[in-house]
């Protein structure tokens, strides 16, 4: 699946949620996630493929369900908007998959948790992410669209400051605040 996304930094979570509600966006998810990133010792997936392997544990706080998603995410480009390809599948045993990956010389490089609140408006997905302090200390809004023109529409709908819109990855944002790469 291809995705187009940006992050909006320097947000006030409550204010963004009020703006989303005021335009008629629908709350579609409220989750607690644990994201575990795997790579080889020499970081082949990150360095050669501009991506990562992730097991995401998603605890759906609205429906009291938990699922595990295994993802390969690769960045195709980062010019104004991040263009990524994601290949993912559900798994039912996180521990078993972790052991398989370890046997393949893929080690845990980072594990972080976050709260994610997601709203949908037409074909635009708005996701408010709040990571644990060690992963990234500031909340941000992620906007995912299918067409680049919807990105401009999303920015206008919420009256966002364009200076706060970035195509940077979480890895890049972490480096900027002195936390090091993932």
Automatic annotation (TrEMBL):
SUPFAM superfamilies: CYTH-like phosphatases
Entry keywords, A to Z: Coiled coil
Top-level taxon of the source organism: Bacteria
CYTH domain segment(s): 1-176
Alphabetical list of Pfam families matching this protein: CYTH
Coiled-coil annotated residue ranges, if any: 141-168
Family matches, as InterPro entries: Adenylyl_cyclase_CyaB (IPR008173), CYTH-like_dom_sf (IPR033469), CYTH_domain (IPR023577)
Name the UniProt record assigns to this protein: Putative adenylate cyclase
């Amino acid at each position: 699946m291809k995705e187009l996304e940006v992050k909006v930094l320097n947000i006030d979570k409550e204010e963004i949620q009020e703006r989303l509600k005021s335009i008629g966006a629908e709350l579609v998810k409220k989750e607690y996630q644990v994201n575990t990133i795997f790579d080889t010792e020499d970081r082949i997936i990150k360095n050669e493929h501009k991506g990562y392997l992730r097991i995401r544990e998603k605890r759906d706080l609205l429906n009291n369900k938990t699922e595990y998603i295994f993802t390969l995410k690769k960045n195709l480009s980062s010019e104004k908007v991040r263009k990524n390809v994601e290949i993912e599948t559900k798994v039912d045993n996180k521990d078993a998959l972790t052991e398989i990956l370890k046997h393949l010389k893929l080690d845990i490089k980072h594990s972080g948790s976050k709260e994610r609140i997601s709203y949908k408006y037409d074909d635009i997905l708005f996701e408010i992410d709040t990571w644990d302090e060690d992963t990234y200390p500031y909340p941000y809004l992620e906007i995912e669209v299918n067409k680049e023109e919807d990105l401009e529409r999303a920015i206008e709908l919420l009256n966002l400051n364009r200076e706060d819109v970035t195509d940077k990855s979480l890895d890049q944002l972490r480096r900027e605040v002195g936390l090091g790469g993932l």
